[in-house]
Design the sequence.
């Protein structure tokens, strides 16, 4: 939690939130507003029930697909390897687009960390490791260039990728 520098001004979006532990704990420790997005309806119901029993009114959970959910309020996104392959690629593309609209941070834990570490538009705050929380920041120059359809001066030429 400390490394993510969460504050009450942030909105933490947990993509693939499961039973909601991350959003619940983050809200209890920092006062952050939390949103859990989970495809499994029973998990959403359990997480929402837990938030209510703990009187955490700044945390809510929605039943939905991270590829289609509204991500516009998020400032910090958390992924604990909720999905892989094309689903992860689609979610990362959505996050890249969100990063062109406002500053965001992406926190990961687990195997998806390696995938994010290979994304040219992201930079880790420390050496990425699947067994530790890694925080990624968009490289703003790269995000701007992608939006304008230009190659970034900090990325390798397209022919070398």
Sequence:
């Amino acid at each position: 939690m400390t490394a993510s520098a969460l504050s009450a001004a942030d909105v933490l979006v947990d993509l693939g939130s499961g039973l909601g532990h991350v959003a619940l704990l983050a809200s209890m420790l920092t006062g952050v507003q939390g949103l859990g997005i989970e495809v499994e309806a029973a998990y959403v119901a359990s997480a929402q029930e837990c938030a209510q029993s703990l009187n955490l009114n700044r945390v809510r959970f929605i039943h939905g697909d991270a590829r289609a959910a509204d991500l516009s309020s998020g400032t910090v996104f958390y992924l604990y390897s909720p999905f892989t392959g094309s689903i992860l690629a689609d979610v990362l593309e959505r996050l890249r687009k969100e990063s062109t609209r406002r500053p965001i941070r992406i926190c990961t834990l687990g195997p998806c960390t390696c995938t994010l570490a290979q994304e040219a538009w992201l930079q880790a705050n420390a050496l990425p490791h699947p067994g530790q929380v890694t925080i990624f920041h968009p490289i703003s120059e790269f995000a701007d260039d992608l939006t304008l359809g230009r190659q970034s001066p900090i990325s390798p030429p397209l022919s070398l990728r």
Summary: The chain has five helices and seven strands. Helices lie at 21-30, 41-53, 85-99, 112-117, 140-148. The chain has one domain: 11-160. Residues 28 and 56 are 8 Å apart (CA to CA).
